[in-house]
Predict the structure of NUDIX domain-containing protein.
Amino acid sequence: MTPMPATPVIDTHVILRDGDKVLLSQRGGPYGYGRWHAPSGKLDAGEPLTVGAARELNEETGVEVDPEHLRLVHVVHHKQDAGTERIGLFFLATRWAGEPVNREPEKCLDLRWWSVHELPEDIIEYPEAGLLGYLEGGEPLTEHGWS
């Protein structure tokens, strides 16, 4: 039997920092309802990673970032379930414009700045792995959910 190539979902996550604070959004959809994560979304087919990350950030928060001002800071290879794996690319916005607003109230309950020293306890595990990987400055890759 020949192994099948992986077909992971590619997710982009954008970390917005304002000093020692990071912006998190509270999920309003069925996956992770009421829990926190960084602004994120799926990459569209044919779309460069940084362009997709900038698009998702703007769609969710109204914040504008030039794709050239997104720096890759962590990667998470996440096994969601037996049939689904995801690759999450976590970008730090090094320069951005606008005040975050909830542009997707049907999917997001709240946007809030959190101190990096007092993050909420109920961050969804997969994005938490990427956020903490960035904040702790360790290895650039986390394999999450595989064991």
Remarks:
- The first strand starts at residue 9 and ends at 15.
